[in-house]
Amino acid sequence: MVMGRDPNVVGIEVLKKNGIDVDKLIKELVTNASVEFTAYYYFTLLRANCTGMEGEGIKGVIEDARLEDLSHFESCIERIYQLGGSLPKDATDFIKMSGCEFLQLPPNPTDIKAILEKCLKAEQGAIVNWDRVCQMTSGKDPVTFDIAKDILAEEIEHESWFLELLYARPSGHMRRKYSGERPHTQKHSRALG
Ligand SMILES: [Fe+2]
Ligand SMILES: [Fe+2]
């Protein structure tokens, strides 16, 4: 049985009382979800084009970042619906809102340096995106903040991996134990196992 159409959602009311612009937050989360989903797709192509002896060492790093982008997409979904939002009906609308066209394969698809530069740019954009959500929710919406800060932690790791590969700037990272480990966001993307 479905009751009245507009229930009072205490989980949203408290956020408004705390000073959150809920519509703006939903918009931010849906856009960020589209970036993560689209980046996951483009990283699939970039990883596949890491060929030759040089490419062999790079593809594992891109694979780790790629599977964590899928985790970031998954981490957004439940919260978007809890807040009263939804994902676009048309998948092409969803992909378009990401602004990720820059992640398409370079003119020479197997140019490893160009691939790494694209990966770095994607991670740096993601850091800005998730930092924005952290700023919007800090001290006001602990649930969304927890998700955003955990995604941000992984994006910062990803940036450091690609900085190391491109500039020999040590990242201090140990390789993931397995691709898809997602040490910070695993609890937000349990559907992935
Ligand atoms: Fe991501
Ligand atoms: Fe990332």
UniProtKB/TrEMBL annotation:
<dbReference type="InterPro" id="IPR009078">
    <property type="entry name" value="Ferritin-like_SF"/>
</dbReference>
<feature type="binding site">
    <location>
        <position position="123"/>
    </location>
    <ligand>
        <name>Fe cation</name>
    </ligand>
</feature>
<feature type="binding site">
    <location>
        <position position="155"/>
    </location>
    <ligand>
        <name>Fe cation</name>
    </ligand>
</feature>
<comment type="function">
    <text>Protects DNA from oxidative damage by sequestering intracellular Fe2+ ion and storing it in the form of Fe3+ oxyhydroxide mineral. One hydrogen peroxide oxidizes two Fe2+ ions, which prevents hydroxyl radical production by the Fenton reaction.</text>
</comment>
<keyword id="KW-0963">Cytoplasm</keyword>
<feature type="binding site">
    <location>
        <position position="72"/>
    </location>
    <ligand>
        <name>Fe cation</name>
    </ligand>
</feature>
<dbReference type="GO" id="GO:0004322">
    <property type="term" value="F:ferroxidase activity"/>
</dbReference>
<dbReference type="GO" id="GO:0005829">
    <property type="term" value="C:cytosol"/>
</dbReference>
<comment type="subunit">
    <text>Homododecamer. The 12 identical subunits form a hollow sphere into which the mineral iron core of up to 300 Fe(3+) can be deposited.</text>
</comment>
<keyword id="KW-0560">Oxidoreductase</keyword>
<dbReference type="GO" id="GO:0006879">
    <property type="term" value="P:intracellular iron ion homeostasis"/>
</dbReference>
<dbReference type="GO" id="GO:0009295">
    <property type="term" value="C:nucleoid"/>
</dbReference>
<dbReference type="InterPro" id="IPR053475">
    <property type="entry name" value="DPS"/>
</dbReference>
<dbReference type="Pfam" id="PF00210">
    <property type="entry name" value="Ferritin"/>
</dbReference>
<feature type="binding site">
    <location>
        <position position="36"/>
    </location>
    <ligand>
        <name>Fe cation</name>
    </ligand>
</feature>
<keyword id="KW-0409">Iron storage</keyword>
<dbReference type="InterPro" id="IPR012347">
    <property type="entry name" value="Ferritin-like"/>
</dbReference>
<dbReference type="InterPro" id="IPR033921">
    <property type="entry name" value="DPSL_diiron-bd_dom"/>
</dbReference>
<keyword id="KW-0479">Metal-binding</keyword>
<dbReference type="InterPro" id="IPR014490">
    <property type="entry name" value="Dps-like"/>
</dbReference>
<keyword id="KW-0408">Iron</keyword>
<dbReference type="GO" id="GO:0008199">
    <property type="term" value="F:ferric iron binding"/>
</dbReference>
<dbReference type="GO" id="GO:0020037">
    <property type="term" value="F:heme binding"/>
</dbReference>
<dbReference type="InterPro" id="IPR008331">
    <property type="entry name" value="Ferritin_DPS_dom"/>
</dbReference>
<protein>
    <recommendedName>
        <fullName>DNA protection during starvation protein</fullName>
        <ecNumber>1.16.-.-</ecNumber>
    </recommendedName>
</protein>
<feature type="domain" description="Ferritin/DPS">
    <location>
        <begin position="27"/>
        <end position="166"/>
    </location>
</feature>
<comment type="similarity">
    <text>Belongs to the Dps family.</text>
</comment>
<feature type="binding site">
    <location>
        <position position="158"/>
    </location>
    <ligand>
        <name>Fe cation</name>
    </ligand>
</feature>
